[in-house]
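Per reviewer request, we include the raw input and output of the structure prediction for the construct analysed in the revised manuscript.
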Amino acid sequence: MESRTVHKGGSAEIVEKKSRFIGEVFPVEHEEEAMQLLEQVKKKYWDARHHCWAYVISGDRMQERLSDDGEPSGTAGKPILEVIRGQQVGNLLVVVTRYFGGTLLGTGGLVRAYTEAAKQALAESVIITRITGYRLKIETDYTGLGKIQYLLAQRKIPIVQSEYTDQVTLSVLVSEEAENEIVQEITEATNGQADIKRAYACSFADVNGEMLEFPDE
């Protein structure tokens, strides 16, 4: 299973007819965390007129909430939520703070401004694809090492740790869907001489070329 989520939040600011729209993105795991972060934004921009927001919490039951915070109904929270949905990202809060510039923007202008502020803030964020799977430990003799390395390279499976003694132990990250096939291929290629065990369940993601692991939830 794969899921897109925010690894590092970003921010962006746009100006529309002298009104400032400050978009900020935060990774969150639950509603309480989202509400705490919202309060921090309100304190940070205490003199702003509006703090409009939306969040999506992924999980067994997806949660979505939004707020126009005093703007005309449907002109702020809903556009922010639609941006999140369009990016197919979960576990995040997006807040767009508005400093009123003295000129009314109308409903269409507000929708465009809140949409653009949310889009730009997400564009400045680091969004990753987390893959649910396992860390496997593969123990082999030096004769089977080359075959295993070739198979892993063919499937683009990262080796995250290597130990060389009288035997070789490789630690790799594999998705749930690919695990059985990989184990079978390595077993056949080494005539059953490789010892393959699950170290633990986890999720992982490639972040700018670096493979990061996340604890099993």
